[in-house]
Amino acid sequence: MPVGFAGTPRGAGDAAAAYVTAVSAAAGRSDVERQALIDAVAVDGSGPAVAEMMGAGSPSAGSAGISQTLAARVWVADTDVDVPVPQGGEVTARLLTCALTGAMTDGVVAGPEAGLAGGWYVQSATVRWTQGRWRVVAVQRPVPVPPPDQRGARRDGGPRDTQPLLEVLSARSWVPGTV
User: Fold this and answer.
1) Closest CA to 104 of 64, 162, 77
2) Tens of pLDDT along the chain (179 residues)?
3) How many Å apart are CA 166 and CA 171, to the nearest integer?
4) Cα–Cα distance between 101 and 129 in angstroms, integer?
5) How far is CA 123 from CA 29, 138, 160, in A?
6) Can you give the pTM of this predicted structure?
7) What is the CA radius of gyration of the chain?
8) Fewer CB within 10 Å: C terminus or N terminus of the chain?
9) What DSSP letter does each residue of the chain carry, written as one string?
């Protein structure tokens, strides 16, 4: 699990992106491994809710699936992203994520049931600065958004709601882990 994020809103956004990515990837691991990861990133008492909201609940019986989420952009509304956050302070970061799920294969043969599904989402995660690190307090379910494109149109040529992308592409957003 990545650590060492700055005690600023920018650090909160970077931590939220890293945590959402790590927890979503743990969906296919054992219950013990998933729970240990949730315990490492969640504020005491919020682990079960955080696990469910991040999509790291128990996989369905007999499933051999994979799940991966990539946080492409992060932004924190209405705040200076480089001002230190006081002990116990909370920051809500919004993430533009691309989530992919599919059946696990041997890397060579993919049968007809092996397919990859996914899409673009905006997800909010609230983190708290405590004891020199960020801990997840709450995560909202991801909301589907149109994939970024230059025309703002669907494949059929009709208009697409590009409002969610205004924040994503604004000067207030950044790629996680960059300065």
Assistant:
1) 64
2) 777 899 999 999 999 999 988 888 777 778 788 888 888 899 988 888 787 777 654 444 445 667 788 899 999 988 899 999 999 999 999 999 988 877 766 666 656 666 677 788 889 999 999 999 999 999 988 888 876 655 555 555 555 566 667 777 777 888 898 86
3) 10
4) 31
5) 23, 11, 19
6) 0.81
7) 17
8) C
9) ------SSHHHHHHHHHHHHHHHHHGGGS-HHHHHHHHHHHBPTT-HHHHHHHTT-SPPPTT--EEEEEEEEEEE-TTS-TTSPPPTT-EEEEEEEEEEEEEE---SS---TT--EEEEEEEEEEEEEEETTEEEEEEEPPPEEEPPP-SS-B-TTS-B---HHHHHHTSTTEE-TT--
For residues 129 and 88, the answer to whether their CB atoms sit within 8 Å is yes
Other Cβ atoms within 10 Å of 106 Cβ, number: 7
